[in-house]
Amino acid sequence: MRRARSLNAASQGRGEWTIRKTLTLSDVDISHPFLTLPRQPVENYILVHLTQLERDQLSNREQVTVSTRDDDTGENYVMKLKWCGSYYNLIGKWGKLVRAKGLDAGREIRLRWVNGCLHFSVPLLQVAAEAPVQMIAPPILREHWPIRKVLSLSDVDTSHSFLPLARRTVEDHILIHWTQQQRELLRNEEQVDVNALDVDSGDMYAMKLIWRGNYYNLIGKWGKIIRRKGIGVGEEIRICWCNGCLNFSVPYERNVLLLPGQEQWPIKKALTLSDVDTNHPFLTLPGKAVEDHILYYWTLQARDQLRVERQLNVNARDDDTGDLYLMKLKWRGSYYNLIGKWGQIIRGKRLQVGREIMVRWDNGCLVFSVPES
């Protein structure tokens, strides 16, 4: 470890910035001030200089104090580094820095580790012209879909038709391409018109985006899109911003095919007392079985989100009745809990200790069955 540390320090001259990042809207939001840094560069160029105790603290999701220096002003700060699963957050005095340096989305921050201190710089040259944020489009072929979401029951409800999208993904991948005036309209909780292109069919829709706290809602023609495309629970919608337009796609779902000899219900469990307790309703499922037969079919993004947030919405279907439920899968380390509507299911199916529940993943939905004894 000492040799690796010395090699990194030797290769990292004072003129070399080992980590560079374009600031996003969430990075400069002073209401929730933190700087998000990608995991691999932090581990390659920062954590290698920390002690084993500090690295263990980060692994346990504890905050580690680091000394930082603003190379532009020469000011020193005591800040904290926090591991959030697939990325790291720099917190503490970040809100003060955003205000003092007048940071805005689109500017580049550069970081390096020198002599036991995290140095950073945000060159002033990038804001001298005070030009509006440019509309930088993703590749025309749209091979990259930065926003992906598995549709839930509420997403495909045509009686109250809107598509909620997580705040951070919208700000990082859509609003970053907007003008300052458009972003301020959203901050004032006003609707902003957007053109939306259905990449699958070529149809164009005039829609609206509205801010709702931790989410942004896409409204307008969403109900029409649901009916026209026949979108159902469990399907995945993919979104990107391209050429001044919101592009979306809902690929046709492929069935989970069973191989010869493969069990139709790969997860089976005899219900325990805790599984049928309506006072604290949750179904416990073994960790390896869930990872082998449920998470295996999830996108990498969904699996990472589950690890970071510890729980994630899932669509569940009772194979015995056909009823659909919006539930949550919660990660507990060596096992998983299915929560949300489980108490309702216990009462409705009159579940008792010893009865067998069978579970599988099928077309973006967790399917379960409790055969009659």
UniProtKB/TrEMBL annotation:
Listed InterPro entries: B3_DNA-bd, B3_domain, DNA-bd_pseudobarrel_sf
Molecular function terms, GO-annotated: DNA binding
Cellular location(s): Nucleus
Keyword match Lyase: no
Alphabetical list of CDD domains matching this protein: B3_DNA (cd10017)
Gene3D superfamilies: DNA-binding pseudobarrel domain (2.40.330.10)
Domain of life: Eukaryota
Keywords: DNA-binding, Nucleus, Transcription, Transcription regulation
GO-annotated cellular components: nucleus
Coiled-coil portions: none
Keyword check for Nucleus: yes
Name listed for the protein in its UniProt record: TF-B3 domain-containing protein
Organism this protein belongs to: Daucus carota subsp. sativus
Lineage: Eukaryota, Viridiplantae, Streptophyta, Embryophyta, Tracheophyta
